[in-house]
Amino acid sequence: MNRDECWDTVDVSTHSDTEAETKMDGDQFVCESFSDKLYVPKRSFRKYVKPWHVALCVAVIIIIIIIIATTATKKGNIANKDKQAAEYVSSGVIISDGYSLVRYDPKDKSTKRILRTDKIIGSFDLYKDTTFWSEPNASKIVSVNNENGDVAYKNAEVIFDNPRFKVQAMEVDHFTEKLYAIDKTTGTAIVIDLKTKQYGILLTDLKQPHDILLDATKGLMFILQPTESILRLNMDGTSLIELIRYSKYISAMTLDHKNKMIYWINDYNTILRSDYLGLNRAHIFKDQIFIISLTVSDDQLFWLWPSNGVHNATLWSCRIQTNDTTCQSHQIQSIGLANATSVKSLSHRGNFDVSNPCIRHKNICQHMCLLSSEFNAGRSCACHVGWESRSDPRSCQPVKEFLLYVLGSTVRGRILNFQKDTFTEVFFPTALNTKSLNKKGTVDFDYDPHNDVFYVSDDVHVYQMNLRHPSNQTILLTASSFHYIEDLAFDWLSMNLYYSNCSKFSNNTHFLHAMNVRETNKFKRTVRSFTYRDGFGLKGCPYGTVIDASEGNVFFSAEESFFRSIYRTTLNGTRLKMDSKNIDYVHQYRILAIDHEEKRFYWIHRSGLETRIRNVGFDGTDENYVHVMTVSNARTISVYKDWMFLSNDLSIWRGNKATGKDFQRVIPRSGSDLSEPVSAIKIVDLTLRAPDDKNSCGKNNGGCEQFCYASPKKTCGCVDDRNLRDNGHCY
């Protein structure tokens, strides 16, 4: 038997490779165990391995090789692209001429247009191969890829859009991929997360900020207030100091990131510098022409002359050194731009190797990780607008309570954590359009927190608008020609808005009106009317109105023949009674406040160098008073939990409601007084809401056709010229 025949005798389905082998016995092969042999005969190989098996294996191997090669090529391309992007944004300067951005390379004097658009470019910045920009005084920030070249504004990707924020300047933090922007009108700074497009309100109360700069390697931010100063603060908004102050005008600033110096222009023509501490100040250069913009790239200082109608805009440069205060080797750079308006350096944009604490502690913050000083671990966490930090500052929760107030002609909302100086705003500072305030010195307002509707009045109109969601201010009602609107108070259970309709003549009738804002028709009715000949003898119009919705009472003050008093009536106008008389106050003061927890109402009894506050239970008993020595000329009051809030013309204070002690100024917390008067203050508690099953007016207006009053017992009402049926309908 030959060797192949020996293999053929093995039943491969029942025998293993140890059951047979061959050996030579003379000229014959003898089948023996397989265990000692390595020989595999050709016939056996053909028997177990088919040709298509081999083809399949070869194909798989080829596919694997192709995948590996493709992946390696792709990674190489991506790495090369990132490297090119880093190199691109780390050299040269960018010049704006209004409708386009041009990159100028001072090494080879070359220029390259990277963006052309159909809208004027107001402010801009670059991040890798992307340009962010906005129109002058616009609410929208857009981004475009620089490879697109020409792009229409409407085709650019929208990064941010809010009509209550007007972009003055912007700067990108290349480490954390956040965009910082400022609004000159409202003095607000925001931070936008470029990955999620969510944002937080970093700061308010800046004084007409003009520019913002970042040094992410140090976690520092610089804000230019032209008529005031240059501020330095951490990029999370903390540790704000006035770095540079000048009594006239600071027109521009820039940073030398390499040497950690700041350059600025006094009076449009003098360039100065200092270090980041404001020390080692030096006069660098004084020009004869206005300088509109400047920047530092490597060891060169660039500044821009504007176009004057005869000559094009001119870019100048000189060499600078940290140990030399002179500007050497002045040169005119040929840029070929007739109307250049600003210049920005790219020299610091490619420094991605510096340690990034937000990367080291990835996902440590629920919302946003921001760079900060080294003393704060180099980073801190921040929350999006409408959210606030929990006790663990790394996590966030929706704002449930806040201080609502009107400052000048702007309405603002601040969280009640007064230890925080940043990310305290609940919504954007919102401008009010009040046309006439001849009859009163301040605006009247109230707020429906559950539907986010803000009601505000001037002499003639009552307006409504949203605060947490952008909307236009619209007219809700208008006073008649012989009356003016004096006050506002909102019943959040019955959805009725109360207001005083005051006669322009002292011997005519005044009205306390109510409007049902729940219904589309906005029904109005008279709650009470007051004339000089009434038994109560009200000469003045009801004023300082506040509502206790849970008990069903309306409190207000009014002038009588010889003194001023506080009254109450039910929500539907019945049971008018006097609660206190001989109140000493000035007409425009908001002297009343409700303590919902302890069911008491407070009022400012006297106000001057010493403020006296009285309070009494809803049943008229247990009257107390406290002296507040800290706050003079108090004009508005609000009570919440253990605290009493008072405001005078230029500040807001908080103290112990029971003792009148421990009052501290909370707005502003530091520095000088507010520059505009505080009209009124109100604490908004979003948790103060009755469940629908316990609110008798909550569903279908309580079955009432026009007016529903939820407490003290549900009743229906009709407009003045209609009568009420038993089924709640009017005829």
Automatic annotation (TrEMBL):
Q: Name one GO molecular function term.
A: Wnt-protein binding
Database matches in InterPro entries: 6-blade_b-propeller_TolB-like, Cueball_EGF_LRP_Nidogen
The keyword Transmembrane helix is annotated on this UniProt entry: yes
Q: Supply the alphabetized keyword list.
A: EGF-like domain, Membrane, Repeat, Transmembrane, Transmembrane helix
Q: Name one GO biological process term.
A: canonical Wnt signaling pathway
* Gene3D superfamilies the record matches: TolB, C-terminal domain
Annotated transmembrane regions:
52-72
Keyword Repeat in the entry? The reply is yes
Q: Kindly list the GO CC terms recorded for this protein.
A: plasma membrane
Q: What is this protein called?
A: EGF-like domain-containing protein
